[in-house]
Amino acid sequence: MREAGQGYRLFTRRRVLQGAGALALSGVGTGAYATGIEPFRQVVTSYAIKPNPAAPWPAGLRLRIAVLTDIHACEPWMSAARIAGIVAATNALQADLVVLVGDFVEGQRYVTRVVPATEWAPILSTLTAPLGVYAVLGNHDWWTDAEAQRRGKGPTIAGTALTQNGIRVLSNEAVPLATRAGPVWLAGLEDQIALTPGWRRYGHRRPGLHDLPKTLAAVPDGAPMILLAHEPDIFAQVPARVALTLSGHTHGGQVRLFGWSPVVPSRYPGRYVYGHVREASDLVISGGLGLSIAPIRLGVPPEIVVVELGAEAAA
User: Fold this and answer.
1) How far apart are the first and last CA of the chain?
2) Kindly report the CA angle at 6 between 42 and 199, in degrees rounded to 5?
3) Which positions are tagged coiled coil (predicted)?
4) Which of 17, 102, 157, 188 has the most crowded CB, counting CB atoms within 10 A?
């Protein structure tokens, strides 16, 4: 079984820097900042969310959830050392629960070295939280895995590495978390665009392996629930009984100017882009940590997201 990422052509460090330099020259100062500074300017973004009245939530329960997504492990952008720093920063936040919302593997061509799962998964295993560390997979975790694509199903290299390092990967299933106020269920959806264009299931160009009804049915009626879904598009179908959905995938567009992102990988590009969205229930879309497609970030720095769930929202 080949390591995830071997389908990508590797670039020399010189070629990567030349490409970054060309982007920089296109906008001089702005381009240099977007390729050489902001992709590494990590921030912590916090949200305080009180679940909607239709979502069952224990009175007085407040959970701090740390969200990491879209790591895209590759050099020079996301080295093993940088991932270790992200883990240390996350542990320092003392969250009750840590969730990893997919796309662990590289997602672009401008890389000097793919960081293999044998390196990044053991680092992620050092994340700690009283209620545990859980994960779902993202589209790139599937797309770069030739064997999983050939089978049209798992296991994937990324998922196996996480599991072997003690991180539970949720695939259309849910688990109860033992809080002081009773069980809160954490549900994880399999990826919505997992299979590459060679597959033609159900008329979709990139069919998913997700099953929202099955995932929701795993949670007892009336029980409080949090949902992990790599792509946020599924939120249009999420019922009000779900207290919170956590997603990534969009990277906030990677370029976001005055609250507007010109390119968003979504069927709802103006609806599910970045940040906190409230419709029938609540959704938080993280801008992620790594880079996809192009080595650039502008107006949406890499972030660790912290959600205080059960807290009164800021006025």
Assistant:
1) 52
2) 100
3) none
4) 102
Peptide bond into 155 cis (omega under 30): yes
Structure tokens at 159: 């998922």
| Separation between Cα atoms, residue 302 and residue 91, nearest integer Å | 17
Give residue for tokens 């589209």.
Answer: 139
Average pLDDT along the chain = 89
d(CA 80, CA 74): 8
13-309: CATH topology: Purple Acid Phosphatase; chain A, domain 2 (3.60.21)
SS3 121: helix
User: What whole-number distance in Å separates Cα of residue 75 and Cα of residue 68?
Assistant: 19
Question: Which residue from 117, 130, 60, 63 is spatially nearest to 91, judged by alpha carbons?
Answer: 130
Q: What is the pLDDT of residues 188-220, one digit of tens each?
A: 999 999 998 765 544 456 789 999 999 999 999
Domain boundary assignment for the chain: 13-309
Read off the tokens for 126. Answer: 């050092």
